[in-house]
Amino acid sequence: MQDLAKVYGQGPSAVHALRGVSMEVGEGRLLVLLGPSGSGKSTFLNILGGLDRATSGHVWFGDTDLTECDDDALTEYRRSSVGFVFQFYNLIASLTARENVSLITEISVNPLDPAEALALVGLERRPDHFPAQLSGGEQQRVAIARAIAKRPQVLLCDEPTGALDSATGVRVLAALETINRELGTTVFIITHNAVVAEMGDEVVQFGDGRMVDRRVNTKRKPPLELRW
Ligand code: ADP
Prior knowledge:
Layout: E1 2-8, E2 15-21, E3 30-34, H1 41-48, E4 56-58, E5 60-61, E6 64-65, H2 71-81, E7 82-85, H3 97-105, H4 114-120, H5 136-148, E8 154-158, H6 166-183, E9 186-190, E10 202-207, E11 210-216
Parallel strand pairs: 3-9, 3-10, 7-8, 8-9
Antiparallel strand pairs: 1-2, 1-4, 5-6, 10-11
Helix pairs in contact: 3-4, 3-5, 4-5, 5-6
Bound molecules: adenosine-5'-diphosphate (ADP).
């Protein structure tokens, strides 16, 4: 990302959500993004994932400048290279865990087997459960299995534990860590919870649309050891 800026609206009511963020991220890294509400974290992640476009600046994915891509190319990038996990799971209630994952694997080029994706998040024993028969944390892990089943290079997670208590939240984070370690997926996790920073390779702090700090953890802490 190079000098990324985003302005919503115009004139006196314009909101400067990002004010020039530059960051290079190596393949396979796990980044934790912290910062107060409204500091630009979601805007940053949405531009990174091709859900939104920058007002100025560049986003490079390998040799491709996403800010120069037309809508079709951006859709193709999003479809093949990016997985998303949000605070709410958005599972289809009338489909089982396996069927929710299969929806994606059926339209992907080189997908994981749905059973393999569910095993990576620790749900190998629950493929035939419907969302209503699963806890919040389990539903979020199905959503993670669905997001990574197409083997995206990048997994973007916006407050993935926002609706969960500590005990179930750490299992969701453990699932994200397993994916990063076993599949080599580059993972970004937005959180309000500073404790989560300890599981990252790097911790990026946002403030008022800027990156105000970036540090490297010498050692990652296993998510199951985190408590908040
Ligand atoms: P964070 O994720 O750190 O809470 P956001 O990226 O969601 O921050 O928001 C940054 C700023 O941009 C906030 O002031 C927010 O109100 C504003 N904003 C975000 N999305 C929109 C939008 N679609 N239209 C107008 N303003 C927006």
